[in-house]
Amino acid sequence: MTTDALQNWEKKTKEHRKSYQQFLKRADKNKVLKQLPVLHEEAFEAVDCLTCARCCKNYSPRFKTPDVKRIARGLGLKESVFIDTYLKVDEDGDFVVKQSPCPFLNPDNTCSIYEMRPSDCARFPYTDEDVLIKRPALTLKNSEFCPITYYVLEKLIAGALK
User: Fold this and answer.
1) Is the pTM of this model over 0.85?
2) Bridge partners for 97 per DSSP
3) Cβ neighbours for 5, distance < 8 A, ≥ 6 positions apart
4) How do the domains of the chain map onto residue ranges?
């Protein structure tokens, strides 16, 4: 898959949703996990996150307790002040940012807290770990706004068809 294959990916991912769903349901977990590191690297070479930043513009990671402690300390804030200033509790009981885009997203799509960012941000879009298979609903949601997830799913399916 070349970067040309990423053209119109938003439209294609909606069209391919059912096939993604079926693939994730039936996939051989061990076979998929072996392919993920290479596909993950390929995807990050094909897609420049700094030109996209859809994840930071439209969604929030979970801020787990260690994230809150680390980031508050890094910003020189008390945890309670950090929470009151930037976070809210969502319907799942997790801390998430109060607003979109993320308040730590710079105008050039870089992250002002990159070195201490939440673990969810560091791991996103989970295309190099078993979350891709274990949480198919999350993978499907991510494929709708993340070209890297789209790329990896397309490559996995193409490989399964061989």
Assistant:
1) yes
2) 87
3) 151, 154
4) 10-56+124-161, 62-122
